[in-house]
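Table S2 (continued). Query chain:
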Amino acid sequence: MAKCSSLNLIGTYSDSASTLNQLSKQHSIDLAFINLETVRLDNPDLINSLNNQPFFIAVSSDGQYAKKAFDYNFVDYLVKPVSYSRFYRAIDKTMRCNSQRESSNIGKHEIFIKKDSSLIRLNMKDITYIEALENYIILNTHDNKYTFHITMKGIEYQLPPEIFTRVHRSFIVNKRLIKTINENCLQITLGNKLKTLPIGKSFRDTLLNDISVINKK
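Corresponding output:
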């Protein structure tokens, strides 16, 4: 990585479980190199379930895994031994893809909210949870609360589903903040505190299908 100052090595992992576990925890990872000869990724849903999916570049000693790599929408495929010029082209391609992703997401993950006579730009990821209050909703962030005259269904349509999920007729939560899920409630992390919110029976199955669950034997 010394020749490419734009890259910062986070870690190396030798199996699928460790790789996906690290990617699910580290939301700041933008790019992952996957050696398809040592890390078996046989279930596309595992990658698709990552909340903050990085770009992937496949690495192999031959081209036999190329179809699988592109089925996973990997951004490039490198055959060993990899020359620096070929490596650099893969990085350049990834950076261009990232620029396109960021451009397409401008506005998608941001909203303007009206407060008094001003409009305030709010990043979607800063919303912790939303609560229904009769004909209003209360939008909560770590630092503020905003009240709007809108239905839960109306605000739900404006929220990116990769970040938010509805867990109750009166609550929508930021999935990234979910700490624990119990039978009838869940806890979300708010700074150094945990807040308990109810789970509606009709929303529970959707919630569990919306997250990655690994059953401990």
